[in-house]
Amino acid sequence: MTTDSTTKQKATNQLPPPSFVKLAMRNMVRKGGQSLFHFGLTAIGLIGFILLIAWFGRPTLPH
Prior knowledge:
Elements: H1 2-13, H2 20-30, H3 32-56
Helix pairs in contact: 2-3
């Protein structure tokens, strides 16, 4: 009877593993400066890529 009750207690005391979002947020808080730097590089790269595609895809109007 004691083994069943201890098994049930272990099952109820265990927490589910944290989600990937929670792990990412915890990692970002722990490495704040590096995360902000990488986020800035990603944002600049994305904006640059969009501007490059817009530049090459611009229409040519006759004079």
